[in-house]
């Protein structure tokens, strides 16, 4: 009760301050012109009394101070987005939902929605979209797709591909899970999005935040010209980087919530109890050759995926070569941590209320959820199809098909958790990691394919 009274008192104080400085704002008649335009002419010092002049200057200074304050420029949208940022931080701290991602993103959302005065002829260099601001410089790494490849370098340096090397056929599950990307691409087209925008939206189904940011920075960045208006003016693609990135990372964090019901719905208890043979031992030579061969094969198939897959396999080679331990340690620790902070903060800050609270954002979140669910179902169903051609102990537990999405290692952990609930002695984690890392490769290849015919 005391907290509620305190909050009410703060609100009344803010309202009173606004009414004193701008009595017309209560009735909604306050002008939003530039403060320079609203400023009354300062009287000549020589023509008025010094005391009167001082009071006039002080009053005008106070009005300017309030006019520029966040209280004066706050809107319902700002408060809603700040609430969203606080909710992300709450989820990360209270329930440990992807804290390394949601804490920077949540803080970034708050950064991006601190209200400040804006006018056409005024650049205070505060917001992320204002040229010259610190956030604008950091956001350059998102717009130009600099951060995602560095994230992939770190992922490669911390990933063990042994399970995939020992059972290469499980790579098909990672490929099958990408069906959600292309189906959502078609759905976005049907809803009226331009092809470039639809391609960027579809990639959410891979549950791979860096890939989603990389693709949207190329296709839905607000810069590309996609047509010409009747009067000859260029038509620009929408800037959807913020909504797409937030949706992708949100669904990555919600993997333990979204995937288990779909997995149980599409499998029988008998299928969930299937035991798989332990993966064979993989030699050091195989581990060294895999990133080299993998990069050549995947980038020859999809050259546009080189920035992502090239860095992924490079990071893995640093890990497996055995002679670049310092570089591998830097890539998977310091470097990826720094880039994650910059990426999360700037992506969160890009969700300014006036750009994020739109119908497009709601549609993107809906399509993203559908895409992620279809991807999960696609992996599980394809595992069941593969079992039609396998016999005996070669059969696959269909649960591991859900790990075909790119949420590493969360999807694999979910598979392990669901499997243990059915049989506490049936450990599926080592098997699920194969389609999980294959999903990372598959989503990057899918991104490259979309880029090849949309850009």
Tags for this model:
455 residues, mainly alpha
Annotate the secondary structure layout.
Blueprint: H1 2-21, H2 35-38, H3 50-68, H4 70-73, H5 76-94, H6 99-112, H7 134-143, H8 147-158, H9 162-166, H10 171-176, H11 179-190, H12 195-202, H13 209-219, E1 225-228, E2 234-236, H14 241-253, H15 255-266, H16 269-272, H17 284-301, H18 306-321, H19 325-349, H20 353-356, H21 359-387, H22 410-422, H23 429-454
Antiparallel strand pairs: 1-2
What does this structure look like?
The protein is mainly alpha-helical and 455 residues long. The protein has a domain of 314 residues. Helix content is 67%, strand content 2%. The protein is built from 23 helices and 2 strands. The chain has a two-stranded antiparallel sheet with strand order 1-2. α5 packs antiparallel against α6. The longest helix has 29 residues. It is elongated, with a radius of gyration of 26 Å. The relative contact order is 0.15. About 5% of the residues have low confidence.
Number of helices: 23
Main beta sheet strand tally, sense and closure: 2 strands, antiparallel
Compressed to H and E, one letter per element, the order equals HHHHHHHHHHHHHEEHHHHHHHHHH
Q: Give the overall shape.
A: elongated
In terms of per-residue confidence, which ranges show pLDDT below 50 for 5 or more consecutive residues? 25-48
DSSP strand tally: 2
Radius of gyration: 26 Å
Instruction: Compute the separation of the termini in Å.
Output: 57 Å
Helix coverage percent: 55-70%
**Beta-strand share of residues:** under 5%
SS class: mainly alpha
Mean pLDDT, to the nearest integer, reads 85
């Amino acid at each position: 009760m005391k907290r509620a009274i305190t909050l009410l008192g703060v609100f009344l104080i803010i309202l009173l301050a606004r009414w004193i400085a701008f009595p017309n704002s209560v009735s909604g008649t306050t002008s939003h012109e530039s403060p320079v335009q609203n400023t009354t002419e300062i009287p000549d010092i020589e023509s008025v009394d010094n005391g009167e002049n001082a009071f006039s200057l002080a009053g005008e200074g106070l009005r300017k101070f309030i006019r520029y304050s966040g209280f004066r420029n706050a809107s319902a949208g700002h408060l809603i987005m700040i609430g969203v940022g606080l909710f992300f931080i709450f989820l990360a701290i209270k329930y440990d939902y992807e804290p390394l991602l949601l804490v920077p993103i949540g803080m970034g959302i708050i950064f991006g929605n601190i209200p400040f005065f804006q006018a056409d002829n005024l650049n205070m260099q505060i917001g992320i979209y204002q040229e010259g601001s610190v956030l604008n410089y950091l956001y350059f790494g998102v717009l130009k797709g600099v951060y995602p490849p560095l994230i992939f370098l770190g992922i490669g340096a911390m990933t063990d591909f042994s399970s995939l090397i020992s059972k290469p056929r499980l790579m098909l599950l990672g490929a099958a899970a990408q069906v959600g990307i292309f189906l959502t691409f078609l759905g976005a087209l049907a809803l009226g999005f331009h092809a470039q925008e639809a391609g960027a939206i579809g990639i959410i189904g891979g549950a791979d935040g860096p890939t989603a940011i990389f693709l949207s920075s190329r296709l839905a960045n607000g810069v590309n010209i996609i047509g010409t208006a009747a009067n000859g003016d260029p038509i620009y693609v929408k800037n959807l980087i913020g909504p797409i990135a937030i949706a992708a990372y949100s669904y990555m964090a919600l993997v333990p919530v979204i995937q288990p019901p779909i997995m149980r719905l599409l499998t029988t208890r008998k299928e969930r109890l299937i035991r798989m043979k332990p993966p064979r031992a993989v030699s050091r030579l195989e581990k060294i050759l895999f990133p080299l061969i993998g990069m050549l094969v995947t980038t020859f198939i999809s050259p546009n995926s080189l920035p992502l897959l090239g860095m992924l396999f490079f990071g893995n080679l640093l890990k497996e070569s055995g002679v670049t331990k310092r570089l591998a340690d830097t890539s998977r620790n310091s470097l990826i941590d720094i880039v994650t902070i910059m990426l999360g903060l700037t992506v969160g800050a890009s969700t300014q209320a006036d750009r994020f609270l739109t119908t497009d954002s709601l549609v993107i979140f809906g399509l993203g959820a559908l895409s992620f669910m279809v991807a999960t179902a696609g992996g599980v169903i394809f595992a069941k199809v593969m079992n039609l051609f396998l016999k005996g102990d070669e059969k696959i537990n269909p649960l591991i098909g859900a790990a075909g999405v790119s949420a590493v290692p969360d999807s694999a952990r979910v598979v392990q958790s669901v499997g243990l609930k059915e049989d506490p002695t049936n450990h599926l984690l080592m098997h699920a990691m194969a389609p999980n890392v294959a999903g990372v490769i598959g989503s990057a290849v899918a991104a490259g394919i979309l880029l090849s015919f949309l850009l």
